[in-house]
Design brief:
Order of helices and strands: HHHH
Number of helices: 4
Structural class: mainly alpha
Helix content: 55-70%
Protein name: Histone-lysine N-methyltransferase SETMAR
Shape: globular
InterPro entries: RNaseH_sf, Transposase-MT_Hybrid
Largest sheet: none
GO molecular function, one term: nucleic acid binding
Strand content: under 5%
Radius of gyration: 16 Å
């Protein structure tokens, strides 16, 4: 597995190859991170109340959950990101509430 900074650099290079603009934002901007505003809530609700005997059991459940997500789940998350970015721009970088 690669260190996160290596993956980030490779991702930026890949985006630049396709001419995509990389917008700067704070590293821990929860209002703009799809994992925080779209992914973790449903995942937390899914796992709520479950107990796992082993790490492998947890990994298996996570894989099962991700494998069964419909493509629309991701589409909604990406579309939400676009509107959140616009709100952030309109608010001159201030925090974006739901």
């Amino acid at each position: 597995m690669f260190p996160s900074h290596v993956v980030a650099n490779l991702t930026q290079q890949w985006l630049q190859c396709y001419g995509w603009e990389i917008l700067p934002h704070p590293a821990h901007s929860l209002d703009l991170a799809p994992s925080d505003f779209h992914l973790f809530g449903p995942l937390k609700r899914h796992l709520g109340g479950m107990a796992f005997e082993t790490e492998d059991d947890l990994i298996s459940e996570l894989r099962n959950w991700f494998d069964n997500l419909h493509v629309d789940f991701f589409r909604v998350g990406i579309n939400s990101l676009l509107s959140r970015w616009q709100k952030c721009i309109d608010l001159h970088g201030d925090y974006v509430e739901k």
